[in-house]
């Protein structure tokens, strides 16, 4: 029995994953059959052969000893050694599958591998990665190709056309030291600057980059879906729906918003690498994940959701007991560092005044419910979506119904957390991605379609999970064909809506003309349409539209100011003065109204009032090159040509491409009367 005990200690039962052996009716020990089957999948053929040999010879040694053979000889000692080595090999193979990284055990990945590794006939056929990317690329280009015809529109006039800082590469360091229109996205400004060096102010290049970024994000959705679902049709369906979703027109067709996609791209890269880290346990993926998150937050603050997303992933696929705080420290440090710089060093906390807590809560309940509806039914779309703002009370039908929708989605996410982790993660993704737009930190815009770009990733993943579940559960070829036809139908419908919506972004006029067709009519849409008509020289139409905008919202100070400009250009000086004074009363900090009022006074020979108005405009906006030009005109009218030259040069120093100031400088050098700026 002494020899038997010695052999027993050398048996591979000490290896990780070993199961107890059983005895047959004759008393002979033999390996457990279930263990034999499981271990064959875990070790290689070479190790398995050595292990099996050691097991057989070890059994022989035990049997011989039990029969009373007290001197088994050297062959049994060799068997003992081989068995121990085989056990070590098996233990190493198993331990290789149970890595511990940052305090988290990774047993061959944190999620169930039966989806990707299942050889069952129910599992859909894998979609080759190359073919999937090719399909996504073709669809993305076809759907957004008509944006190449579009001009600069909406915010493009502020952040690209009128952004003088991006025109010089030496200004890049300053992007990190200040905000731009109460936004702190320095890396986006860097992309603007590089794009300006390459394409100037030709929209084609900006559209090309926007589409390329959207394509890259669509491919990343495909890669993430392949990890969460399977490499089958479900992952491709998720990526294709994301690529052609009509809700993305405001993010892709609008060049200003399109450049936010750079930060979103890095966010998705970070999430994808983190998923790979959890599956493979490789530190390289982990480190590159948080490294990608660093520039992401400085390109778009939407990337701040990276920490909530990876935490959600771990809670669902790993379990809260295995979560280690130190895993998230780099991500928390990045988010905290960005917020510290923005809040305390740059001084940008919010873009709009705060609302009452009750007002914000009830309003955002209604807004979030509308967001869920737009993800499923993205029609009609408008740049000025109207929300009937409820009073600060939950006891209203609209608020109650909206709350029911939100709770239904949240309930679905919770109920699926065990039996369908990928589906649960997808739904929770939507909620996490909406956090930056919840008005906890007030924004200028309460609701916008572009805010749904990142949340739509979650929607697309859920759509892919639904398709994957259907074609996995039902093997009937006719049913699977029906699912395929249905998906193609949705993709076709979404593509048509997207192409149509892209055309509405052709220019400011087409954009705002489409906006006023979507009920309810808003003062914002009418006011911006009035500006577009004024720039087209259609002053009568512009005046009518602006007056309608003021009727809908008497507090729309920009509509008052633009009505004053139209009235000034058409010689209606009394109306112009009334409208401009009203705009200043509503918004004393709106410098454009002062600049136009100064021109009005200059024409009326009220020189001192004109000087005061121009000076006030510059005081409110030191970068207002048009106000400097107008002040130069004032000095020229007074015969102070040296003073006029100084202000024209100041205007050109701010905007070297400003033709009015350049023309006036040439005129003043010849002692001629300068030309006035009226825009």
Task: Give a brief rundown of this model.
By secondary structure, the protein is mostly helical. The chain is built from 32 helices and four strands. It is elongated.
Task: Walk me through the structure.
Residues 1-87 and 89-121 have low confidence and may be disordered. The chain is mostly helical. The chain is elongated. It contains 32 helices and four strands. The longest helix has 28 residues, at 477-504. It has three domains: 2-96, no CATH class; 122-502, no CATH class; 536-669, Serine Threonine Protein Phosphatase 5, Tetratricopeptide repeat (Alpha Horseshoe), CATH 1.25.40.10. A hairpin with a 5-residue loop joins strand 1 (22-23) and strand 2 (29-30). Helix 11 packs antiparallel against helix 21 (455-473) and helix 26 runs parallel beside helix 28 (591-603).
Number of strands: 4
The average pLDDT is: 83
Pick out the low-confidence regions.
1-87, 89-121
Portion in beta strands: under 5%
Q: What is the number of independent domains?
A: 3
The computed structural class is mainly alpha
Q: Report the helical percentage.
A: 55-70%
Calculate the terminal CA-CA distance, rounded to whole Å.
104 Å
Radius of gyration: 34 Å
* Inertia-based shape: elongated
Walk across the major sheet and give the strand order: 1-2
Largest sheet: 2 strands, antiparallel
How many helices in DSSP terms? 32
């Amino acid at each position: 029995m002494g020899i038997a005990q010695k052999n027993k200690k050398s048996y591979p039962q000490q290896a990780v994953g070993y199961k107890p052996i059983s005895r047959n009716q004759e008393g002979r020990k033999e390996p457990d059959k279930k263990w034999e089957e499981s271990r064959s999948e875990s070790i290689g053929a070479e190790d398995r052969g050595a292990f099996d040999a050691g097991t057989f010879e070890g059994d022989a040694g035990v049997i011989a000893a039990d029969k009373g053979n007290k001197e088994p000889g050297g062959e049994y000692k060799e068997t003992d050694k081989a068995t121990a080595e085989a056990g070590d090999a098996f233990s190493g193979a198993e331990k290789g599958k149970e890595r511990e990284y940052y305090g988290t055990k990774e047993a061959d990945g944190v999620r169930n591998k039966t989806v990707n590794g299942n050889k069952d006939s129910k599992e859909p056929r894998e979609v080759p990665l190359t073919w999937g990317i090719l399909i996504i690329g073709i669809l993305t280009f076809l759907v957004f190709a008509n944006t190449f015809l579009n001009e600069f529109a909406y915010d493009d006039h502020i952040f690209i056309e009128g952004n003088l800082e991006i025109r010089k590469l030496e200004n890049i360091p300053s992007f990190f030291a200040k905000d731009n229109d109460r936004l702190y996205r320095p890396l986006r400004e860097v992309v603007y600057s590089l794009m300006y060096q390459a394409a100037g102010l030709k929209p084609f290049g900006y559209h090309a980059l926007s589409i390329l970024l959207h394509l890259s994000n669509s491919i990343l959705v495909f890669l993430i879906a392949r990890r969460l679902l399977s490499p089958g049709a479900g992952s491709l369906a998720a990526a294709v729906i994301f690529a052609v979703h009509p809700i993305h027109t405001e993010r892709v067709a609008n060049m200003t918003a399109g450049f936010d996609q750079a930060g979103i791209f890095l966010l998705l890269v970070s999430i994808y690498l983190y998923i790979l880290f959890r599956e493979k346990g490789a530190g390289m993926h982990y480190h590159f994940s948080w490294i990608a998150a660093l520039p992401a937050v400085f390109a778009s603050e939407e990337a701040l959701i990276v920490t909530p997303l990876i935490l959600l992933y771990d809670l669902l696929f790993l379990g809260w007991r295995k979560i280690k705080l130190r895993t998230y420290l780099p991500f928390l440090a990045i988010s905290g560092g960005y917020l510290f710089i923005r809040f305390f060093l740059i001084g940008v906390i919010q873009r709009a005044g705060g609302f009452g807590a009750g007002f914000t809560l009830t309003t955002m309940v209604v807004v979030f419910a509308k967001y869920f509806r737009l993800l499923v039914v993205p029609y009609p779309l408008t740049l000025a979506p109207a929300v009937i703002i409820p009073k600060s009370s939950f006891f209203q039908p609209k608020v109650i119904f909206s709350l029911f929708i939100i709770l239904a989605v949240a309930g679905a996410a919770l109920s699926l957390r065990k039996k369908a982790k990928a589906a649960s993660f997808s739904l929770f993704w939507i909620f996490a991605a909406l956090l930056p737009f919840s008005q906890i930190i007030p924004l200028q815009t309460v609701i916008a379609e572009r805010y749904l770009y990142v949340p739509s990733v979650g929607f697309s993943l859920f759509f892919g999970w639904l398709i994957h579940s259907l074609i996995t559960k039902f093997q009937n070829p006719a049913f699977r064909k029906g699912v395929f036809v249905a998906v193609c139908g949705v993709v076709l419908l979404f593509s048509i809506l997207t192409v149509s919506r892209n055309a509405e972004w052709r220019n400011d006029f087409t954009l705002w003309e489409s906006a006023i067709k979507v009920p309810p009519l808003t003062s914002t849409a009418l006011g911006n349409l009035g500006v577009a008509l004024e720039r087209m020289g259609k002053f009568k139409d512009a005046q009518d539209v602006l007056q309608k905008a003021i009727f809908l919202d008497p507090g729309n100070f920009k509509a008052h100011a633009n009505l004053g400009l139209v009235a000034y250009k058409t010689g209606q000086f009394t109306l112009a003065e009334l409208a401009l004074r009203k705009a200043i009363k509503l918004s004393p900090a709106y410098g454009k109204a002062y600049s136009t009022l100064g021109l009005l006074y200059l024409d009326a020979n009220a020189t001192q009032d004109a000087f005061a108005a121009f000076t006030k405009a510059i005081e409110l906006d030191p970068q207002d090159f048009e106000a400097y030009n107008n002040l130069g005109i004032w000095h020229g009218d007074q015969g102070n040509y040296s003073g006029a030259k100084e202000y024209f040069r100041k205007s050109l120093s701010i905007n070297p491409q400003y033709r009015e100031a350049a023309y006036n400088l040439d005129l003043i050098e010849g002692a001629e009367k300068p030309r006035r700026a009226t825009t």
